[in-house]
Amino acid sequence: MTRIVTDALAHAELANVVAAEPITCYCTGFGESGIDYVVYYYVDDFEDAKVSDSEILAHVFAALQRGGVRIPFPQRDVHVDRVSPEAAMRREGAARLAALSRVALFDSLTDAERGSLAATLSRQLFAAGDELFRQGDPADSLYVLGEGHLAVYDESGGTRRPLASLTAPDYVGEMGLLTGQPRGATVVALDDAVCYRIDKAGFDAILRSRPEIVEQLSHVLARRQADNDAILAVLSGEDRGKRARGRAGEFVRRIRQFFQLHA
Question: b/e string for 102-118 if b means 16 or more Cβ within 10 A?
Answer without folding.
Answer: ebebbebbeeebbebbb
